[in-house]
Amino acid sequence: MSSPGSPLLPRDVSSSTSIFFWRSGALLVVTGLIAGAFGAHALKRRPGITADNLYAWGTASNYAISNGLGLLLLSLHPRFSSHRFAGYSILGGCTIFSGSIMALILSKNLKFLGPITPLGGMLMIAGYLSLAF
Length: 133
Hints:
By secondary structure, the protein is mostly helical. The protein contains 4 helices and no strands. It has helices at 15-41, 51-76, 86-106, 117-130. The chain is elongated and about 50 Å long.
């Protein structure tokens, strides 16, 4: 558990931070839901889309939903909703991870995003790990 004097956890809980993470979580969930529906219905009809592309799209959609739910929960916590690293890291990591996968599938010209995808995953992991310390 975090010590009461942790530099990552301020003593005063900022309601604007909680609201930001609540809204961000809700937007990630709805983005994941819309992307999942798009992948299930419209994406598979696009030329050049493979079964592997659809699987990766589904993974990106699921991660957006899961991390959105994580941010919604984080925003409700009386102490961790104001954590100076966790929420921002989870949000940024999910955006980079899911966004880069979706961009790679939609545009074959963005191959430079391939190496960026794991960085998003590492940011998400770091965000959740930071809640443990």
